[in-house]
Amino acid sequence: MSLRINSFEEYQISYEESTLNPEKFWGDIAATFQWNKKWDTVLDWNFSEPRVKWFDGGKMNITENMLDRHLEKKGDQIAFYWEPNDPNAKQKRITYSTLYHEVCKTANALKALGIKKGDRVCIYMPMVLEAIVSIIACARIGAVHSIVFAGFSSTALADRINDAQAKLVITADGLNRGAKKIHLKQMVDDALKACNSVTDVIVFDCINCNADMLEGRDHDYTTLIQQMPDTCKAEPMDSEDLLFILYTSGSTGKPKGVVHTCGGYMVYTSYSFENVFQYEENDVFWCTADIGWITGHSYIVYGPLLSGATSVVFEGIPTYPDSGRFWAVCEKYNVNQFYTAPTAIRALMGAGLEVVNQYNLESLKVIGSVGEPINEEAWQWYYDHIGKKKCPVVDTWWQTETGGIMLSGLGAHSPMNPTHAGYPLPGIQPVLLDNNGAVIHENDVEGYLCMKFPWPSVLRTTYGDHNRCKNVYFSNYEGYYFTGDGAKRDRNGMYRIIGRVDDVINVSGHRFGTAEIEDAINTNEFAIESAVVGYPHAIKGQGIYAYVVVNDANQTTTEAIKNALMNSVTAGIGKIAKPDKIQIVSGLPKTRSGKIMRRILRKIAEGEKTEFGDTSTLLDPSVVEEIVNHSI
Ligand code: WT7
After folding, report:
1. 363, 336 in Cβ contact below 8 A?
2. What is the chain's Cα-based Rg?
3. How confident is the model at residue 1, as a pLDDT?
4. Which of 208, 395, 449, 493 sits a CA distance of 20 to 30 A from 131?
5. Is 472 close to ligand 1, i.e. is its CB under 6 Å away?
6. 429 vs 450: CA distance, rounded Å
7. Ligand 1 in contact with 506 (CB < 6 A)?
8. 346 C-alpha vs ligand 1 centroid, how far in Å?
9. Which pLDDT score, from 0 to 100, does residue 244 have?
10. Ligand 1 pocket: which of 397, 495, 496, 516 to mutate (most atoms <8 Å of CB)?
11. What distance in Å separates the CA atoms of residue 498 and residue 485, rounded to the nearest whole number?
12. Which among 590, 616, 617 is positioned nearest to 601, based on CA atoms?
């Protein structure tokens, strides 16, 4: 058996094998990688605890599989083309062999700073090659990386550093984002005022802005790395040793650190990469995500390198210098597989076909979508005008917690149905549960999307709080992993994701908990109480609607209050979480027991004026009327 599925029939055979004998199925795939010692057991699991171990007893290092293993045949092959934010700036390219040496140098630098296996390293970086090198360098020495998206605020950064008790932060002086420059180092300095676990900071000079450097703590990346030896022995890791932590939002509380481990994550990201995108030797793959999100982890860094692929890494944004940028980059590098988010597609649709038609997109073979449900109009436009009706659209459904793509077509081999993610990958066993938690066996149904069997890259725990992992994912439906999504299964067994059924909103493919935004609003002196809901937004998928009860003793203008509230969200989380609408209200609709009736607020945000279903438990129905009358 090989890793690669070459037809729908082969998919069906693989799928059946993967469910009848998962241990044989995944054991055979794992055997195609390089191990220092073979595993004792393929799988050991119990979803109730939860406990999931894949390839336990096996020894390996993921970076030997991403780099060393390819050097002999692919040393001179390009691993990454780096496309700068400014199209006129100098592009870069890095071969597998150079990447290997850069990773080793950086790994040696980490060691020189005292970083050891198991230590946590926070990476807060722009989309530059040095970020990727840093990630792999951590894995090389067994340090656990925790990447924080560089759009998060210093408060959000501090929360994540503290939760992981990171010893080291790798950052840059600043970053380029379209016409803007953002000073990252300043944010790190602010964050570190509230952190005491960090002993060192490595700063990459990206925008040449002469960031302040603190003697003894801060080190210039280039100077530090320069003197290091360019080989570094890979730390032997147990399959189940931590590879990384990535923070993601849920319905309640602060973002939690999703933990992924070495062996299973390696096997699944590579397997899913090759099959979903049908990547072939000499192809050029481009995933437009940021390394701060799971998509960047699995399909910019790990999956493609494990599979020996050549990819594009893009520093900039889709609309700079104009809305043709994505297509210009596709043309420039002859991109064969292109992977982006519906929000970008919708934004670029608006620029009109004249823009798209200036570019030659003939190299494209597979085009992918990820992060949120893709609406029919965007799907059709993507298929017709980017894929020119000859490229399959792979609508890939997955999550930070799943580590890799779970539901998707496999290149051109699977039947397509617009807005449907489609069938599960081999090894993935989805079920739909009804309101009573019973499995729905028929087709043409709708229910809560759960998984009944583990796959190699399922999250193992939430960092520092295993109970939270259990409560959030494994307790709603005993014996199942609960995704938080609702889904439909059509007559043919294809899945269509409806969206989150919990208090998580998805804004431009970015995940936020409503509670997290409310907490940020509530830190503001004007705010007494708030409730945040999502509502349909033409470009972002969902927009953020905040209802806030304010204390206005000094009769400040509504405009000024709203600005202040917005600033609190920017400071607490980042600009990406700023509400699209803020409505100042005198009270929130609550039940007699004091629970906010979000269902009603959601309806109002959607534009509903009269039909709110059962409101008999409302303490004060007049509140609803007032909110409706002043809704935005
Ligand atoms: C949530 C996970 C994993 C990629 C980036 C997002 C939504 C993701 C799709 C899709 C419909 C999707 C789900 C999921 N989602 N992909 N193809 N179709 N919805 O990762 O931040 O962990 O968010 O994104 O609601 O639960 P994430």
Report:
1. yes
2. 24
3. 40
4. 395
5. no
6. 9
7. yes
8. 17
9. 98
10. 397
11. 7
12. 590
The two three-digit tokens of residue 331, written as one number:
């043309």
Give the Cα-Cα-Cα angle 432, 438, 440 (nearest 5 degrees): 45
Distance, CA of 190 to CA of 169 (rounded, Å): 13
Q: Over the stretch 274-329, which tens digit does the pLDDT of each residue have?
A: 999 999 999 999 999 999 999 999 999 999 999 999 999 999 999 999 999 999 99
Q: Which two tokens stand for residue 500?
A: 């989150």
- Residue from 265, 288, 370 whose mutation best tests the ligand 1 pocket (most atoms within 8 A of CB): 370
Give, for 47, the enclosing helix (H) or strand (E).
none
| The pair of three-digit structure tokens given for residue 13, joined into one six-digit string | 């055979």
pLDDT for the residue numbered 192? 98
pLDDT tens per residue, range 566-587: 999 999 999 999 999 999 999 9
Q: Where are the beta strands (DSSP E) in 68-182?
A: 78-83, 92-95, 120-124, 144-147, 168-172, 175-177, 180-182
> Tens digit of pLDDT for each residue in 108-153?
999 999 999 999 999 999 999 999 999 999 999 999 999 999 999 9
φ, ψ dihedrals at 489, nearest 5°: -120, 125
Short-list 268, 257, 250, CA closest to 475? 250
463 close to 57: Cβ distance less than 8 angstroms: no
Q: Average of pLDDT values for 174-198? A: 97
Contact (CB, 8 A) for 472 and 462:
yes
Residue type, 455: W
Q: What is the pLDDT of residues 222-272, one digit of tens each?
A: 999 999 999 999 999 999 999 999 999 998 889 999 999 999 999 999 999
Ligand 1 neighbour 298 (Cβ under 6 A): no
Other CB atoms within a 10 A radius of the CB of residue 229 amount to 10
Interhelix angle for 22-30 vs 8-20, to 10°?
110
Structure tokens that stand for 352 in this block:
């009109």
Distance of alpha carbon 594 from alpha carbon 604, whole angstroms: 20
**How buried is 518 (Cβ within 10 angstroms: 0-12 exposed, 13-18 middle, 19+ buried)?**
buried
Confidence tier at 2 by pLDDT (50, 70, 90): low
Output the CA–CA distances (angstroms, integers) from residue 472 to 257, 366, 482, in the order listed.
12, 35, 8
Is the pTM here over 0.85, yes or no? yes
d(CA 377, CA 349): 10
Picking from 256, 287, 255, the residue whose alpha carbon sits closest to that of residue 269 is 287
Contacts of 193 (CB under 8 A, 6+ apart): 158
For a ligand 1 pocket test, name from 500, 506, 508 the mutation site with the most ligand atoms within 8 angstroms of its C-beta: 506
Which secondary structure element, helix H or strand E, spans residue 388, and what is its range? Answer: none
Pairing label, strands 237-238, 59-60: antiparallel
pLDDT at 529: 95
